[in-house]
Amino acid sequence: MPIYEYKCRGCDRQFEELVKLGETPDCPSCGGSDLERLVSLPAVSTQRSRERTAGIARKAAGEVSREKKHAQAEYERNYIKDHHS
Ligand SMILES: [Zn+2]
């Protein structure tokens, strides 16, 4: 069950609540239900998406450095061609 963090718009109190899907808690302070959800991702999927994001970032970094090396080699080839022929 995900834990959500809410802020009550009525009394500005922030609280965390275990919430079943589709349910909205009431403010423990004033009992109001006009709440703003501050954290929308449950802890489990946050962890999973962090790993996925890190994987994508690593992959992207690898591709960029390969492209840089390629561009550098191209540049050197052209430089030699332009200046030494
Ligand atoms: Zn309240």
First-to-last CA distance: 70 Å
Structural class: alpha+beta
Low-confidence stretches: none
Q: Round the mean pLDDT to the nearest integer and report it.
A: 81
Radius of gyration, whole Å: 26 Å
Strand count, sense and barrel status of the largest sheet are:
3 strands, antiparallel
Our count of domains comes out at 2
Overall geometric form? rod-shaped
Helix content: 40-55%
Give the spatial strand order of the biggest sheet. Answer: 2-1-3
* Helix segment tally: 1
Strand content: 15-25%
Fold and architecture overview:
- The structure is a single chain.
- By secondary structure, the chain is α+β, with helices and mostly antiparallel strands.
- The protein folds into two domains: 37 residues; 38 residues.
- The protein has one helix and three strands; from the N terminus they run βββα.
- The protein has a three-stranded antiparallel β-sheet, with no helix packed on it.
- A hairpin with a 5-residue loop joins strand 1 and strand 2.
- The mean pLDDT is 81.
- Bound molecules: zinc ion.
- The site of zinc ion (ZN) has 8 residues, from loops.
Topology of helices and strands:
Layout: E1 3-8, E2 14-18, E3 35-39, H1 43-83
Antiparallel strand pairs: 1-2, 1-3
Residues 8, 10-11, 13, 27, 29-30, 32 line the site of zinc ion.
